Amino acid sequence: MSSQLIGLGDDSFSVAVYVAKAPPMPYFETLAQLEPVVSGQINSINQHCGNGWRKVFNVYAKVLFTLPSEYYSFAKQAVSWQAYRDELLLQQHSGTALLFSAPVLTEHKNQLHIIAGRTHAKNLIQQGKLNAQLDWLDDEFAIDKSQNIIVCPYFDYRQLSNIKIARLSELVAQLRII
């Protein structure tokens, strides 16, 4: 039985963020695959689902803008993280994905897998949906260098502050994904 990626974004992603639940909207109740967002869709999700989802998209764009420029070009594609969020994030050919399913780890060593939330990562492992050798660096961050997996706090300003976003970027640099 092969696993199916379910979420929003580019099916040729280089960076995927995994969250436990999809936005509470009818569209997501039947979503069974990875689909790129269309213009205005992120704004629509924000309007229907509230501040929590706005924070997820904002933090995702901020994270992309802090990734090491020698490995990632996200910060070169837009004038600001806000412009990137509004114009490119999770769209076709963006290289980004927001997934509501478990990671499907392949031989593609050029993919970065970020699991948002320690509890989500531990649940995936406990349910047998993630086979990873996580090295817990502290209570919030873990890394599996062989599979390019990083666990970090949930994508929310209170949990993943600018200082912690910088730490996440440093961990990504250790992976040296090209």
Main β-sheet, in a few words? Answer: 8 strands, mixed
Give the strand line-up of the largest sheet. 3-1-4-2-5-8-7-6
Tell me the Rg in angstroms: 15 Å
Please, what is the average pLDDT? 91
Helices, by number, come to 6
Number of strands: 8
Task: Name the overall outline.
Answer: globular
Gap between N and C termini:
30 Å
Q: Provide the succession of SSEs.
A: EEHEHHHEEHEEEH
Structural class computed from helices and strand pairing? alpha/beta
Low-confidence stretches: none
Instruction: Report the β-strand fraction as a percent range.
Output: 15-25%
State the helical fraction.
Answer: 25-40%
InterPro entries: DUF6942 (IPR054222)
Protein name: Orphan protein
Organism: Pseudoalteromonas tetraodonis GFC
Describe the structure.
With 178 residues, the protein is an alpha/beta fold. 33% of the residues lie in helices and 15% in strands. The protein has six helices and eight strands; from the N terminus they run ββαβαααββαβββα. An eight-stranded mixed β-sheet has the order 3-1-4-2-5-8-7-6. A hairpin with a 5-residue loop joins strand 6 and strand 7 (142-144). Helix 2 crosses helix 3 (51-66), helix 3 (51-66) crosses helix 4 and helix 3 (51-66) packs across helix 6 (162-175). The longest helix has 16 residues, at 51-66. It starts with 6 loop residues before the first strand and ends with a helix.
